[in-house]
Design brief:
Layout (H helix, E strand, L loop, with lengths): L4 H9 L15 H11 L11 E7 H17 L4 H12 L3 E7 L9 H21 L3 E5 L2 H4 L1 H8 L6 E9 L13 H4 L6
Antiparallel strand pairs: 1-2, 2-4, 3-4
Amino acid sequence: MPANPAALEFLLTRRSRPAKTPRTPGPDAEALRPILTAAARSPDHGKLEPWRFVVLTRPALERLAALTGERGRELGLADDIIAKAASQFSDSHLAVAVVNVPRGTEKVPQIEQTLSTGAVCLSLLNAALAAGWGANWLSGWVAHDPGFCQKGLALAEGEWVAGFVHIGTETVAPPERPRPDMDQIITWMTA
């Protein structure tokens, strides 16, 4: 494969956008399709596609914000925890839930399927940013609550949300943040 300096520069400088900043308009179905297609080109040992997408438009996000309040009260969560979780839906105009769909096979362990789903989340985030949108990958307690996921997203038994990728018009580019000291996280083994 030939070198692609522009792609490498994008990856070296990419930055998620603050969750509350992307605004309307967001990508329509035609603009979202290549972003989802790019995300689906993630590593997938065994070609199992152990993930799927649920595109959440504004009416669905409003419904999920209300469900977050309802479910949070059922679980006895504090009001501030409920409000923070609900805001990811009430403040958003378009999001994609990346759902892990475990495939029953001895050939590919579940951990590899989980890692593939995480790769899809990052690829979706990067594809949205590369397409010029503001985007952020969130989760929170709602992503891990089976009751919320079954009622709100109609997930099947065993499916779970790896993340909600919120996408909209970029309104602010965040300042650079501290990055890892590469000398502290790289080990070279030469023999």
